[in-house]
Amino acid sequence: MTDVPEPVRKCANLLKGTRSDTEKFAALFMVTKLMKGKDCNTAGKKLLFEAIGFPFLRKLLVSKDLPNDCPPLVYKSVALSILTGFCQEEELATHKDIIDAIPTLLEIVEQADDEDYEDNLIVVSEAYSCLKSIASYEPGQQALLETGAIPKMSQIYSAQSFQTDEALHLIVLLVNKFGVVSWPEDPTAFHALIQRIALDMETDHTERKYELCHILADILITCRREIVVNSLEGQIWPESLFKGCGDILKAKIGPKQRDPALHLIATTLQVLGIQWAFMDDQKQFFLMLLQLAAIEVRMQMDEKKLETTFKQAELLTCCFVILEQCIEYMATDQLDLEPKEKQTTYTALKGAFNQVMAVLTRVSQDKIRENGNPRDKAFIVATVRILSAWLAQETTAMRPAIYKLLPFMLKIANESFHDLKTWRAGPREGTPPVDILRVMMPALCHFAVEDEARRVLFTHKQDEVLLEAIELYFSIAHWKRPPIPRAERLKRMNEPDPVPTPEQQAQMKEARGAIVALCNILMNFTVLEPKRAEDAPTFANLLKFVVENLPELKDTPENLVIHGNLAVLGLLLLKQQSKKVKQNDFSICRYIQATIRFLWDAYNIDESNDPTALVVSIAYKGVWSDVSELWFLGMQTMCGVLPLVPWLSEFALESGWAEGIVKTLKKVKIGTLPANVKSAYEDFLSQLVDVNADVVAVLKKADALRVCRNHRMMDLGKKLFGD
C-alpha cells in the first residue's frame, strides 16, 4: 500500500477507528473532499472503499433508521457522491456489492419526479452517474439487463422525467450490447419509448432532431421484430417517423443531417417493411427515397480511392438496404409509374449500379479484399448482396463485365453460405450469418440459362455448392421435433408435440423460397447441360438427394410448392440418368409415388360447383401461379421418362392414376376441357399404352372410347382402338 497518498491513508485509519454511525458519517465529508482531489488514486479509492465498508453506504441509501440531525436526502447525496467516485474505477464498479446496489440506484432514478427529490435533484444525477459507470463494464451491463433496467429506463424516458437523456443513453449503450434480448416479450415499454422519441424527432427542428435519428436507429434495429410488427395496432410512431423523415428529405440539408436520416429510414424499412414508405398512400416518398439512395451510392463510389469509399461503408450499407427493398417492391409490379418516372428511376438505378460494379471490380483485384478487417469484409458482402438483388431484375445490361466479376461474387456468396452452414452445425449462438448465396439465387436463375455465365458457374464448381445448399435448406424447411433423451422418454410421453417457434417458422419460410430458387437453377442446368447431368457425380448425388427426401416431406399446404419443384427436378434428372436406374430400386419407387401424388391431385371434378367441369383442386388454387408450369412440365417429362424406364408405368396402373384420369375426363362436359390439359393427359396416356401392354385393357374398361370421342383425343383413340 506504499502508493496510497498519506492524507488518504490517514482518512482510512480514521474511518476504521470510528465507534458509531454518526462519527463515520462525519468522516465521509472528508472522503468526498479527498476523492475530488488529485491525490486520490486507484489504490487510495480501494483502501477507502474497504475502510467505509459497503454495508454502511447501503444503509445511507436505503435505511429509514438514520440519525435525525440531517434530512435523509443528505445522507443519500453523500453516499451517492462517494459511490460515483468509486464507480470510476473498474475494479470497484464491477465489485459484487456495487453490482448488488443496482436495484437501489434504479429506484432512485425512477422516483425522480417524487416531491422528495424536487429540491435535491443532485441525488438523481449522482445515481445516473453511478449507473453510467457501472454500465461501462461487462458485469454491470449483464446485471442491468437482468434487473430489467431497459424497460424501466424506457418508462422513465417516455414519461419525460428529469434528466431523461441520461436514461436514453443508458438504453442505447445496453441495446447496442445485447441486441434483441434487451427487450421483454411484452412490447409495451418498447412502443412507449419509440413513440416518445419519434414524436420528439418529428417536432424538434434543432440539431437534436438528427441525434434522435441515430438513437432511434440504434434502438429499432434491436427490437423483437415479429412481436413489434404484430402489436402495431393503435401505435402512431410509424407515422411520426414517416413525417419526421419526410420533412428531413424535403429540406435543404447537408451530409450531417442526411446521413442520420438515411440510417433511420434503412432501419425502419428493415423492421416495418417497404409498406411503411407508402403510409400516405402516395408514391412520392418512395420515389424520393429511391432517388436519394441511388444518388448517394453513385456519389460515394464515384472514382474515389477504395479506402475513401470504404470509410463511407456505414452510410452506403444503409443506402443498399433502401435500394434492395425498393428493387424488390418494384419487381412485384404493384407500383404504377408514369413513363417519365420509370425513365428517371431506371436512370438513377443504372447510374448507381454502374458505380457498384466498378468498385466491386476494383475490390476483386485489390489487396483490401484479403485484409481480414471484419468491417471491410462486411461492406464487401453488403456490396455483393445489393448487386445480386439488382441482377435478379436487370437481366441484360453489363453482361461482359458481370461475367468477369462473377467468380469473385460467387467466392463471397459461397463463403457466407459456408459460414451459415458452420453456424447451424454448432451451438447456434447469436444471430445466424446472412447467406448472400440465398440473395443471389434469383440472379443465378438468369445466369443458369446464359451460356457464358453457365460456363463460369461450372468452372468454379458452383453446382457442388448448390447441392450443399439444397441439402441445408431442406433440413431447415423439413423441421423435425428435437430428439428426446432416452431417460426422459417415458415421463414426456403424454406431452403435446412441440411446434416450431415463430423464429423457426420464419426460417422455414425463407428455406422454402431458397429451395424453389435452387430447383429452378438446377432444372435449367439439367436441361441445358444434358451430358453433365448424365455423367457428373454431383448430378447423381442430386438425384439421390431428391429420391430419398421427397417422400419424407410432410404433406402440408406450405410444402406443396417445394413438393412440386423437387418432384419435377427428380423427373428431369431421372430422364438423363435413366441408364443407371436399377429396376424396382426402393427409393425410386417411393419417389415416383410421391411424384404421382403431386401430378394426380392437381385437377378434379369433385370440388367444382359444376359436376361436369374439371377444376384446379382447392389445395392447389392458392399457389397455382407457382405450380401450374411445373405441373405441365412434370406431365411432359413423365412422358419422356416412361420409354426410358418403362417399369415405372406399373405405378401409374397400380395406384389407379391412369384409370382415374379416364373416369374423371368421362364426366367432363364436351368442349370444356382446356387444350393444354387435354394434351398433357392424352400424351401421358398414349405413352403408357406404348410402354405397357396391360394399360389398354384398363383404359378400355374405364370407358376410354367415350373419353376419346368426347374430347377428340385422336392419337390415344388410334392406339387403343385402331383407325
UniProtKB/TrEMBL annotation:
Question: Which PANTHER family does this entry report, sorted A to Z?
Answer: NEUROCHONDRIN (PTHR13109:SF7)
Q: Which family does this protein fall into?
A: Belongs to the neurochondrin family.
Task: Tell me the organism.
Answer: Drosophila albomicans (Fruit fly)
Matching InterPro entries: ARM-like, ARM-type_fold, Neurochondrin
| Ranges in coiled-coil conformation | none
Name the UniProt record assigns to this protein:
Neurochondrin homolog
Kindly list the biological process annotations in GO that this record carries: neuron projection development; regulation of neuronal synaptic plasticity
**One CC-aspect GO term:** dendrite
Highest taxon in the source lineage: Eukaryota
